[in-house]
């Protein structure tokens, strides 16, 4: 019967690491299993990701165009027509919109003036367009960013 007192790994499942460069008697002395000279014998060698044997790598062959700004903030867009589904007097925030499936999790929320809104609601999100803010306030609501 196996219990914590007599647990051991299966036979052949664990091997000792190969100890390199420990003299001629070890069988892995001198060149330590790397052979003589050449790229693979040097320290720091090893084929780097994207290396294609000297051929121009794909990453450099493909033409590059334009500029990609890594600091761009991508917003999850919510339109006014979606906000109209909330009952008048409701305080709407980002968490509520994510819960209802109107906005994506992990992204800041922006409200755009697509559609109309009739219910007076209080909106607290990351960003609101000028047109959307005007329409929400015209309906009797309030906007805080």
Describe, in plain words, how this protein is organized in 3D:
The protein has a domain at 76-144: Ribosomal Protein L15, Chain: K, domain 2, CATH 3.100.10.10. It contains 4 helices and 6 strands, in the order H-E-H-E-H-E-E-E-H-E. It has helices at 58-61, 80-83, 94-100, 130-138, and strands at residues 76-79, 91-93, 109-112, 122-124, 127-128, 142-144. Strands 1-3-5 form a 3-stranded parallel beta sheet. The radius of gyration is 32 Å and the shape is elongated. The N and C termini lie far apart (66 Å).
Distance between the termini: 66 Å
One letter per element, helices H and strands E, the order comes to HEHEHEEEHE
Report the strand count. Answer: 6
Largest beta-sheet characterization: 3 strands, parallel
Shape: elongated
User: What strand order characterises the main sheet?
Assistant: 1-3-5
Give me the CATH fold name of the domain at 76-144: Ribosomal Protein L15, Chain: K, domain 2
Tally the helices: what do you get?
4
Q: Class of the domain at 76-144 in CATH?
A: Alpha Beta
**Measured on Cα atoms, how large is the radius of gyration?**
32 Å
Unreliable spans are: none
> Helicity range of the residues?
10-25%
Mean pLDDT score: 93
Helix/sheet category: alpha/beta
**CATH architecture term of the domain at 76-144:** Ribosomal Protein L15, Chain: K, domain 2
Q: Work out the strand percent.
A: 5-15%
